[in-house]
Amino acid sequence: MRAQFVLSEIGVGLRRNLTMTFAVIVSVALSLALFGGSLLLSDQVGKMKGYWYDKINVSIYLCNKSNAESDPNCAKGAVTEDQKKSILADLQKMTVVDKVTYESQDQAYKHYKEQFGNSPLAASITPDQMQESYRIKLKNPEQYQVIASAFNGRDGVQSVQDQKSILDNLFTLLGYLNLAARGVMAVMLTVAMLLIVNTVRVSAFSRRRETGIMRLVGASGFYIQAPFIMEAAVAGLIGGILASSFLVVVQYFVIDHGVSLSTKLPLINFVGWDAVVTKIPLILAVSFLIPALAGLLALRKYLKV
Question: How does it assemble (predicted)?
Answer without folding.
Answer: Forms a membrane-associated complex with FtsE.
